[in-house]
Amino acid sequence: MMFQTPIRGLIACSVFAIALGCKGTKETANANATTPTTPPATESVVATDPMSGEIPFDPETRTGTLPNGMRYYVRYNAKPENYAELRLALDAGSMQESDNQLGLAHFVEHMCFNGTEHFPKSALVDYLEGIGTKFGAHLNAYTSFDETVYMLRVPTDNEEQFDKGLLILEDWAHNVSFEGEEIDKERGVVIEEWRTRLGAQSRIMKKTLPKEYYQSRYVDRLPIGDTEILETFPYDTLRQFYQDWYRPDLMAIVAVGDFDVDKVEAQIKAQFGAIPGVENPREKKLYPLPDHEETLVAIAADDEASFNRLQIMYKHPKREYKDLATYRKGMIDRLCSRMIDSRLEEIMQQENPPFTYAWSGYGDMTRTKDAYQAGAIVGEGGFPRGLETILTEHERAVRYGFTGTELERAKKSILTGLEKQFREKDKLESARIVMRYVYHFLEQSPVPGIENTLSLYQETLPGITLDEVNEAFKSYITEENRVVVMTGNEQGGNTLPKEEEVKSILTGIASAEIEPYVDNVASGPLMETIPTAGAVTDAKVIEEIEVTEWTLSNGVKVIIKPTEFKNDEIMMRAMSPGGTSLYGDEDYQSAQFAVDIIEASGLANFDLVQLEKYLSDKVLGVSPYIGELEEGFRGSCSPQDLETFLQIVNLYFTQPRKDETAFNAMMAKNRALFSNLLTNPDYWFQSEMLKYLYDGNPRRKFLPTEEDLASVSLDRAFEIYQERFADASDFTFVFVGNVDEATFKPLVETYLGSLPSLNREENWKDLNITAKEGPFTEKMYKGREPKAQVRMSFSGDFEWDLKKRYQMTSAVSVLRIMMRESMREDKGGVYGVGARGSASRDPKSRYNVSIQFTCSPDNADLLMETALNDVKTLQEEGPTEQNMQKVKETQRKDLQLGMQQNGYWMSRLMFDYKYGRDPRTLLNQMEAIDALTAEEVQAAAKAYMNLEEVAKFVLLPETDSETDR
Question: What pTM, to 2 d.p., does this model score?
Answer without folding.
Answer: 0.92
